[in-house]
Amino acid sequence: MTMPRSTRKDIFLHLAVIAVLLAANYVLPEYHRSVFSRVLVLAVFAMGYNLLFGYTGLLSLGHAMFFAAGMYGAGLPIYHLGWNVPVSFASGIVSGALLALVIGLLALRTTGVAFMIVTMMFAQVGYLTSLFFTTWTRGEEGLVLTPAMRTLDLGGTAISLSEPSLRYLIGWALFSIVLLLSLWLVRSPFGRTLVAIRENEERMRMLGYDTFRAKLSAVVLSGTFCAGAGAAYGILFGYVGSGFASIQYSILPLLWVLAGGAATTLGPLIGTFFMFYIIDYTSGLTSAYLLLVGVALILLILFFPKGLLGTIRERWAKWLP
Amino acid sequence: MADALTISGLDAYYGEVQVLRGFELTLKKGEVLCLLGRNGAGKTTALKSIMGLVSVRAGHIIKDGKDLTKLPAHEVPKTGVAYVPQGRRLFAELTVAENLEIGLMTRGKGDVTRESVLGLFPVLRERLSQRSGTLSGGEQQMLAMARALCIEPDVLLLDEPTEGLMPSMIARIREAVAELRQRGVSTILVEQRVDAVLSLADRVAFIENGQNRETVPVEDVRADPDYVRRYVGVS
Fold it and tell me: In what order do the strands lie in the sheet with B155-159?
């Protein structure tokens, strides 16, 4: 199916963003490069969330379980079994995808608020499980993956993933792949099907679509992206802990996506940057920084009700994907 | 004339509330059959039952030897039944072209179907890249019909297609229904406007309390205004 809205303009914009982020590795001061590294990986988490929430219209409050599944799926084998980085990363992604398939099959039997609550409950089960098996996970204290455990072996040359520039480049590569994949997905017939389900699911059934199967595919894809982010986060930053499975990490991607603009491909990146830096900046000003963050969010809602990029698209740049 | 669709002994429910009671209806191939009756009589429920969108606890809906009550809702359109619900229900965020593509992906024959549908509603050709939520009411109705026709149906279910439209748009929709009859599409039309029923229908089924009281040729309804007075309450 050829979609008329797929333009060269939006492909150029995405490639330009990727190029700017690559250049940032070589010009940013050390501190900001470190922040950018984290944001790029977390933006992948947000993009995964956006696929389900923004494009398919399914509000989940349990995506921390997919992020944590990726993180533990990669971190536990590295820590306990001494697996190498690429295999562990793949293990994290597969763990998240399988979990998403099972959760999707169960949770998609509900809709609306019930779906939100059910996903939250499953995520809480995941969180409590990570605390229950403390012998393996060390609970809230977590597992620290030493630089020696996180070394890439390239033809006999050992490369440490704790090296800041390499860490940034791996985060950038992961982000770039998922961004382009997201753009392709939302422009594809499958992506337009998801949007149509969001708009009117019953109508789609009337047109002959198996909407359950499409939504299940969206949950699995979304969970896989989030697991990829979780696995990368654990490997790149050397820490795997229960905190990442907590409710806070289910709410954060929702906040990032809303701030940047739901159902926009670049919104999750912008939202994650916005939230990261506003907390970073205000926490340096006062201990009551959350008050300032709250004010900033109120202003954002007042002037950008559909998120930063969502509102820009609505008012000035309708071609934005 | 052979039958395009046969409904027999149908009991349909919304939750525990029974709406259709032993509903019977036969749609002949290539005809326009209008359902007429008061609000709440069960006309829309009859259409939704065909599409598998309400709970059917007894009875059969037979098309080409297949019982549609045994199929999940998303399989019904693949048998060649298309439904244009009341209120249009487009995918407002998608463009006109994308709305049509969504229809084409189910069953249509690609560009051939697309061109045939756009031939029926030429105004949509000028709006292909426009978001459907920004179309006028009449254009939205045309798009809703066009999207349904993208699955190349041989049975079309239309629920009050002219509701709330200006006269010129109503005329266009009526022309389209007449044109579809020429193409051999069998249509069940739910319509409140008696003038539309009289000008479009081949036969009229009068629905009351979830039952089809009688189905008569439109000439009989034209000749005897008492039909409309009795079942709809207007003359």
Answer: B81-84, B155-159, B186-190, B32-36, B203-208, B211-217
